[in-house]
Write a structure and sequence with these properties.
Elements: H1 4-9, E1 24-25, H2 36-49, H3 59-79, E2 87-90, H4 93-108, E3 114-118, H5 127-136, E4 139-143, H6 156-159, E5 164-170, H7 182-190, E6 196-199, H8 211-214, E7 218-222, E8 233-237, H9 239-242, E9 255-258, E10 263-265, H10 279-295, H11 297-316, E11 321-324, E12 333-338, H12 343-352, E13 355-356, E14 358-360, H13 365-371, E15 376-380, H14 387-404
Parallel strand pairs: 1-13, 3-4, 3-5, 5-6, 6-7
Antiparallel strand pairs: 2-8, 7-8, 9-10, 11-12, 12-15, 14-15
Bound molecules: pyridoxal-5'-phosphate.
């Protein structure tokens, strides 16, 4: 059974006092804390096996290569991919999306074509497509949302046309917590032979993900948001697309042969992994995924759901709290405003009470514009947060309100 105290003991940072008490860390959508096993395992590989991968014949290089490729296998199993070579290690979600925008764009997008994103996307899932559209003279189209913060699925038929080359949509909104109907979206798109990229930066850690069941064409996420190290991320792509896409970066490891006249590129996945990759990060990420599996994904998700419902229900009862985004299906994130108090001031006051939250536009300026606000206060939960922490947050918000009135 899920043992919250045991889980909390696994995370050294959660034991730290910032001002007066152990930190109440509610900024998990920005980055998650790392379990000791990830910290230790990363240190172990650095101190015992550090050596560049793929190129060495010596023991250390072989050992490190083995760990790196085994990490790829762990990721493959975690997301239910069909082949290990469909897993490309990147530096994170942002790089994964840039890779697809560049490389898919080079292969498949022409002047007059269209890419569809939604109104609730993170800048990382807008700007790379905008850059592609500028390069190719293509058009970026936007799927509108409703005031509850849900995708307007009925608008799909007018936004998607026979010039649409790809739909890029977030699994879970980092500003609202909305869980998007990605399966339905993928079915709609595939009925028109359009591939779909899912930005899983906020999805993978809070939702079960099986890329074959989803049938998504690309799924991307960041290691640091799922209890792994920073600087490592994943691009899952279906073999049929990755095979046809040109490399994104040139350099070592992504080639089979090089002459000044012609270079023959390497096979998947190496074609997309030029230069020295973050092999230590990949091992750390795999350790984090195995750690989650060991605790039990189903138990984690169930606990998270209970904690989130409790927090949402508590926050909804405070009359001076305005929650931004009231979708029916939400997870892990609550964005809100305290009546007449600037989000920044709320965040600063909460910090003094040892509560870490995020304030601002959360890299979703078009979404904030839609709601006619500059930003929000965002609390975002992980499975190491507790009911007591939610209660403390609610009490602290009352204090903030009193102090400002
Ligand atoms: N997409 C979403 C939905 C996010 O929440 C984030 C980060 O907050 C990103 C993309 C970018 O992730 P990273 O900065 O790890 O590349």
């Amino acid at each position: 059974m899920f043992d919250i105290q045991k889980v909390r003991n696994d995370f050294p940072l959660l034991q730290n006092t910032i001002y007066k008490r152990p930190v109440v860390y509610l900024d998990n959508a920005a980055t998650t804390q790392k379990p000791r096993i990830v910290i230790d395992n990363t240190a172990e590989y650095l101190s015992k096996y550090n050596s560049n991968i793929h190129r060495g014949v010596h023991y250390l290089s072989e050992k490190m290569t083995e760990a790196y490729e085994s990490a790829r296998q762990t990721v493959k199993n975690f997301i239910g991919a069909a082949h290990h070579h469909e897993i490309i290690f990147t530096s994170g979600t942002t790089e994964s999306i840039n890779l697809v925008a560049f490389s898919f764009g080079e292969a498949f997008v022409e002047a007059g074509d269209e890419i569809v994103v939604s109104q609730m996307e993170h800048h990382s899932n807008i700007v790379p497509w905008q850059m592609l559209c500028e390069r190719k003279n293509a058009h970026l189209k936007v799927l509108p949302i409703t005031y509850t913060g849900e995708l307007n699925m009925t608008a799909l038929t007018s936004v998607v046309t026979n010039r649409t080359k790809l739909i890029a949509i977030t699994h879970v909104s980092n500003s609202l917590g909305t869980i998007n109907p990605i399966k339905e979206m993928i079915q709609f798109a595939h009925a028109r032979s359009i591939p779909v990229l899912i930005d899983g930066a906020q999805g993978i850690q809070h939702q079960p993900v099986n890329v074959q069941e989803l049938d998504c064409d690309f799924y991307v996420f960041s290691g640091h948001k799922i209890y792994g190290p920073t600087g490592i991320g994943v691009l899952y792509g279906k073999e049929k697309w990755l095979e046809k896409m040109p490399p994104y970066k040139g350099g070592g490891d992504m080639i089979k042969t090089v002459t000044f006249e012609k270079t023959i590129y390497n096979d998947l996945p190496f074609k997309f992994e030029a230069g020295t990759t973050n092999f230590i990060g990949a091992v750390g990420l795999a350790t984090a995924l195995r750690y989650l599996n060991d605790i039990g994904r189903a138990d984690i998700l169930k606990y998270e759901e209970e904690l989130y419902s409790y927090a949402l229900q508590k926050m909804q009862t405070i009359d001076y709290v305005r929650i931004i985004g009231t979708a029916e299906h939400k997870t892990s994130i609550i964005s809100f405003l305290l009546q007449n108090i600037h989000p920044f001031d709320t965040g600063m006051m909460l910090d003094k009470m040892d509560i870490a939250v995020r304030t601002g536009n959360h890299c979703t300026q078009p979404l904030m514009k839609f709601f006619g606000i500059e930003g929000t206060v965002r609390v975002s939960f992980a499975f190491y947060n507790t009911i007591e922490e939610v209660d403390y947050l609610v009490e602290s918000l009352k204090k903030v309100k009193q102090l400002f009135s």
